């Protein structure tokens, strides 16, 4: 059966998004990019594309759209890896560590841009303290577990006394740590080095598309 104009438009967008970003778009990104009225309309057409064998879908994943493999498909579009989305992290004042609300959510990325997935996890960013580092509220950061960080690294820092976590750039200054925001209107956090545990270093940022009010 021939695709409708809307279905072809969505399929073309998915292909283009994958080429440009190396990971699939979310339903909301499709909705905003193509000025579709609601996520339910996008979902209906994605289901139609799946029935036609153009895509496959995994509803357990935040970005669970995949082009159906073919012999001529680029390798980068065929080999996908899953990264668990384990919660939210505050890019602002530190708040208590995220709960397990995201325990069953995953992000799909291509093996080409994330060849090693050992000790890798994802967090959704809340707040705007890292906007000058191009990390906005709602973006996803991919981190690698590890306690070692170098000055200037963007890290998920656990503040032991406060029992709180925050996303900042890490600077060791003698016996204290400066957790530096990337926002000129926000002040750095100074704390004893013994109070900081680096829970992961940011290795990738997945940006959410800007939402239009039009």
> Helix count?
4
Order of helices and strands: HHHEEHEEEEEEEEEE
Helix content: 10-25%
Principal-axis shape equals: elongated
Number of spatially distinct domains: 2
Instruction: Give the strand content.
Output: 25-35%
From the N-terminal CA to the C-terminal CA, the straight-line distance is: 34 Å
According to CATH, the homologous superfamily of the largest domain is: Umud Fragment, subunit A
Compute the average pLDDT: 82
Biggest sheet: strands, sense, closure? 10 strands, mixed
Report the CATH architecture of the largest domain.
Ribbon
Low-confidence sequence ranges: 210-214
CATH topology of the largest domain: Umud Fragment, subunit A
How many β strands by DSSP? 12
Q: Helices and strands: which structural class?
A: alpha+beta
Would you state the CATH class of the largest domain? Mainly Beta
- In terms of quaternary structure, what is this? single chain
Radius of gyration from the alpha-carbon trace, in angstroms: 19 Å
């Amino acid at each position: 059966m021939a695709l409708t104009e809307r279905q072809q438009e969505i399929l073309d967008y998915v292909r283009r998004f994958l080429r440009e970003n190396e990971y699939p778009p979310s339903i909301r990104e499709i909705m905003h990019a193509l000025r579709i009225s609601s996520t339910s309309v996008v979902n209906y057409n994605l289901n139609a594309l799946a029935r036609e064998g153009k895509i496959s879908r995994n509803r357990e994943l935040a970005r669970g759209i995949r082009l159906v493999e073919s012999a001529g498909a680029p390798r980068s579009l065929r080999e996908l890896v899953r990264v668990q989305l384990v919660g939210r992290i505050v890019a602002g004042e530190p708040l208590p560590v995220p709960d397990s609300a995201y325990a069953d959510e995953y992000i799909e990325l291509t093996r080409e841009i994330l060849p090693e997935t050992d000790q890798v996890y994802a967090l959704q960013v809340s707040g705007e303290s890292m906007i000058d580092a191009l990390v906005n509220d709602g973006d996803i950061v991919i981190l690698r577990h590890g306690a070692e960080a170098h000055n200037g690294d963007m890290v998920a820092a656990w503040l032991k006394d406060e029992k709180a976590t925050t996303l900042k750039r890490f600077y060791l200054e003698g016996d204290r740590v400066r957790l530096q925001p990337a926002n000129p209107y926000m002040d750095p956090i100074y704390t004893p080095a013994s109070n900081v545990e680096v829970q992961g270093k940011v290795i990738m940022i997945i940006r959410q598309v800007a939402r239009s009010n039009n």
